Amino acid sequence: MISLQNVTKRYGAFKAIQSISLNIKPGEIHGIIGSSGAGKSTLLRMMNLLEKPDDGDVIINNKKINHLKGKEIRNIRQSLGMIFQGFHLVGNKTVFDNVAVSLEIAKIAKKNRTERVMESLRFVGLEAYKDKYPRQLSGGQKQRVAIARAIVNNPSVLLCDEPTSSLDPTTTMEILEVLKQINQQLNVTIIIVSHEMEVIRSLSERVTVMEDGQIYEVVEIEPTGVNKSKKGAATFVEQLKSGGDSNPS
Ligand SMILES: Nc1ncnc2c1ncn2[C@@H]1O[C@H](COP(=O)(O)OP(=O)(O)OP(=O)(O)O)[C@@H](O)[C@H]1O
């Protein structure tokens, strides 16, 4: 699965990630939480080399990938789907064509694309929306399209960077339910970055709490709901361990 060994990322003189080591277990839902600027997105983006580490290794299925280039990285990325806060859909393509893009990049023959796209759209409940354009969809529907695009290549891992941060609470819970189904029914390992305790708490089995580019603690939890949303690494750990009932402030 994914393993980071002593990875460091610098932006100029600033160390955004400071010698982090982390093993993601196959099949788990792994949350990454921390305050703004803690390094969550950078850590996630190093897992598929959207950011390259300056030091240390990114290892996928026992293979160091950080020195790979071009085509080899593209091949690895096909097994690592990714979704973002801003959906990143192509405005002048239909829902169907947005999902098909992943198959085009993977050089899947045209005749084999339709069935796979429709299967993905069915999974996220958007079969009937295949001919719509992104501007005709709600935020939650756009994220479902992005999820369909991310799973259409049958990835073993789905990287989620603040996937619900621009959605209302009800839509957030619907998207989290879709992610849970992807984990359970398609056996996809999920790594989810969020600054929202409720999101992380309701989904994750293990949570990496980050602070200042480092791991503050990795916490094992029973995924359930929580209503608190406070800041600071110590508070995150306390809420995770207490089941969200503490009020440390
Ligand atoms: N391309 C970049 N150039 C310079 N600094 C960067 C760059 N990307 C990130 N940083 C800095 O690295 C640190 C970590 O950023 P990152 O986006 O990983 O944090 P985060 O925990 O995801 O924060 P947020 O929740 O606000 O998105 C921040 O201080 C950020 O300003």
UniProtKB/TrEMBL annotation:
<keyword id="KW-0813">Transport</keyword>
<feature type="domain" description="ABC transporter">
    <location>
        <begin position="2"/>
        <end position="237"/>
    </location>
</feature>
<keyword id="KW-0547">Nucleotide-binding</keyword>
<keyword id="KW-1278">Translocase</keyword>
<comment type="similarity">
    <text>Belongs to the ABC transporter superfamily.</text>
</comment>
<keyword id="KW-0067">ATP-binding</keyword>
<dbReference type="GO" id="GO:0006865">
    <property type="term" value="P:amino acid transport"/>
</dbReference>
<dbReference type="GO" id="GO:0016887">
    <property type="term" value="F:ATP hydrolysis activity"/>
</dbReference>
<dbReference type="Pfam" id="PF00005">
    <property type="entry name" value="ABC_tran"/>
</dbReference>
<dbReference type="InterPro" id="IPR003593">
    <property type="entry name" value="AAA+_ATPase"/>
</dbReference>
<dbReference type="GO" id="GO:0005524">
    <property type="term" value="F:ATP binding"/>
</dbReference>
<dbReference type="InterPro" id="IPR027417">
    <property type="entry name" value="P-loop_NTPase"/>
</dbReference>
<keyword id="KW-0029">Amino-acid transport</keyword>
<keyword id="KW-1003">Cell membrane</keyword>
<dbReference type="InterPro" id="IPR050086">
    <property type="entry name" value="MetN_ABC_transporter-like"/>
</dbReference>
<keyword id="KW-0472">Membrane</keyword>
<protein>
    <submittedName>
        <fullName>ATP-binding cassette domain-containing protein</fullName>
    </submittedName>
</protein>
<dbReference type="InterPro" id="IPR003439">
    <property type="entry name" value="ABC_transporter-like_ATP-bd"/>
</dbReference>
<dbReference type="GO" id="GO:0005886">
    <property type="term" value="C:plasma membrane"/>
</dbReference>
<dbReference type="InterPro" id="IPR017871">
    <property type="entry name" value="ABC_transporter-like_CS"/>
</dbReference>
